[in-house]
Every structure is written in structure tokens, then in C-alpha cells.
Amino acid sequence: MNYYIKNIIFILFTLLILNSCQDEAELTMERGIQYYEWNKFDYAILEFKKVVHIFSDKTDNLNYDQIRLLSQAYHNLSISYSKKGWHAEAQIEAKKAFDLIPSTENKEVLELINNQLNADITK
Description:
There is one protein chain. It is built from five helices and no strands. It has helices at about 1-35, 40-55, 65-85, 85-100, 105-120. The N and C termini lie far apart (about 75 Å).
């Protein structure tokens, strides 16, 4: 009986930890978006990188919502880098976002950044 109670407590604790990580990632994403809207791109970049870091340990076991959030973090990083004029870094992050979720929006951002890099080269 004692063994089962310990296992149940362990499972509940594990679920609580995993759920809090998801909530933490979502809150961190929201903070990053708010910083971006305030044109505080350095702070936004830090928040989006925190989201990436939260999921970096478990990239093989992500569910769809976590993959979507991770892709959005890469997407937001790419746009934030682009706003700072860091187009090479923006391209890397845009590619990661597109690789996770090959949506039209992610593809368009990647193409815009690629075009900007090509324009920078021809200057």
C-alpha cells in the first residue's frame, strides 16, 4: 500500500512540474511579446530565448502545443533580430521556426529575411 501511495505522489508531482513548465513558457512568451510591442527588443530576445531554453531538454518528447510554442519563440526571435538589423541571426531562427511548423507565415518571414540578406550582400 505504501509503495502505491509513493508512486501516485511521484506521478502527481511529475505532472505538476511538467504543467508548471508549460505555464512558465507561455508566461515568458507573453512577456517577450509585450517587450517587443514596447520596442524593447533586447528584453524581448531574452524572453524568447528563455522559452527555447525551457524546451531544449525535451525536444524529442514535445506535444503539439509545445512544438507550436517553440516554433513561435523562434519566429519571434527572428523578427526581433531583424528589427535590430541582425539578419544573419534572424535567418537562423526563422529557419528553425519553419522546420518545426512549415506554415505560410513562417515561410514568408524566412523569405523576407533571405531577401534582406541578399539586398545587404548586393550593396
